[in-house]
Amino acid sequence: MRHVISWLLAASTFCSSALACVGQVEDWSRSYLALRSVRGHFDGGAWTASVDRWGGERHRAMLCLATHVSAEAAATAQLLRWMGPPHERLRCPSTGCQAFAADAALAGELWVYHWRGQHDRLGFVITRGRVSAATWAHAGE
User: Fold this and answer.
1) What is the pLDDT of residues 13-54, one digit of tens each?
2) pTM, rounded to two decimals
3) H-helix or E-strand containing 90?
4) Helix H segments across 17-90?
């Protein structure tokens, strides 16, 4: 239930901002890739608003990419181009997949991208070489 509530909060934050996804997928990709390796508070670095803040630049880029990639049922090659290699690749069902939504736990594979270290993560359900869904796992604090 906690994960469903976290996902709904993420979706409502995303949908409430008319400026959340201004631009093109290449813009969001460029932003995400530029910030991907920046260490923030949740992965051993100093607090950095652009990567640690809810609605910060990395979070917004990931939300926009997740929406676009899942709506387009993007091929994994395209996902790799836009976001780079996943931080984790989980075979499902598994304990790791259970941290995400129930539909992710039933998938064959889940590609996980860290937003704020292991604290908050974005998962892409991979089905037959394409993204079939995007799902978040939040710490829920």
Assistant:
1) 444 444 468 889 999 999 999 999 999 999 899 999 999 999
2) 0.83
3) strand 88-91
4) 25-35, 49-52, 57-72, 76-83
